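Minutes, methods subgroup
Present: GH (chair), OT, SY

1. OT presented the first of two proteins processed in the latest run. Sequence and structure tokens recorded below as shown on screen.
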Amino acid sequence: MIFFANIRDGTEWQQPKGNYGMLLPRKTAFMVGSGCKCTYNYGGLSVQPQEFPPWMVDIMMVYMPMCGLNDMTEWPNSCNLNLYDDGNNSVGWHADDEDLFQGLQNNIRILSLSLGICRTFELKANWPEALEHGGHHKVSLVSGALCTMEGMVQKHYKHRVPKENNVSGPRINLTWRWIVQHRKKCPKQRKYP
């Protein structure tokens, strides 16, 4: 698919080191709409923003209407990108609970597109009694799959993409979100206090 190649070749991928000096087990990038300078900080990492390139708008023109977002002014203003080279690359249990998105305080919507090799996505509730009653869910995300997490999911659940020994090809994931609390040094924060 042309989108996969455009993303893979048109992104300035980073692979920062985490809290213990270990490389992140995937490559990552953070893209934002025009005028935003917010860094993406999570798990002790800081990822510098890149402005949406033209191919990002092309991809959003295809996928945003599938989510009921026909007006470009309603589209997400940020996208976290992850490149998993193979099944050894992963992301551990986490919630998208960063202040930028306000997912612990408000209902939010996260749109996630998978391209490339099929990978498993897992979701589990934060409370132990839910796990006793089937509170752990697995979904196979094939290339082109669009997954959403909505409402207070980030407050009540965690999700991950586990390691998979039988996966040998690459996967790219685009996770679109709305920044609602821009960083203090971001021009968008000053414009919209």
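2. SY then presented the second protein from the same run.
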Amino acid sequence: MGGTEIEQPLKNILKENVIEGYPKQIFLLTDGEVSNTENVIELVRRNIKYSRVHTIGIGNGASESLIKGCAEKGKGYHIFIKDNENPSEKIIQLLTDSLTPVISKVSLKYDKELVESVVPNPESIPYILKGEVANFYITFKGQLNQKTVISLEYLDSMNNLPFASSVEVSPDTPS
């Protein structure tokens, strides 16, 4: 199958609307190489904000770079099913892994008088996968002279429940 046969349908699927708080689950099946592997992988990378791409390589000729690359850039999982191999167990595991809950609606609450910037902006993160690390870098306006509280709030997609966690930040004590 040539690259355009995969690329155009994938573009169309990635454009489809999503349900807020739930990334779209896309399963890409292929039995061979494509002519533009890097373009397809880049398409996936550019469009993962609200989607996850899982890949299944079917047969001994499936492109390892396409299968692994799309799954990695698509925050998904991948499997290879060799010729004459029973796919049931692998597909069941892939489907189970794809149903991993996510956290969404991530926000940080803090004293805006004390904080100059937060990178990345928590509102720019549509979801975080189980086991995925999310680092936030907070820059204060000058030397911190008082204690302040920073709260992380998010929604658990599995139970549709809000959660919050707080940390108190204190100024350094001079030596």
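Chair's summary of item 2: Residues 102-169 form one domain.
Next meeting: continue with the remaining queue.
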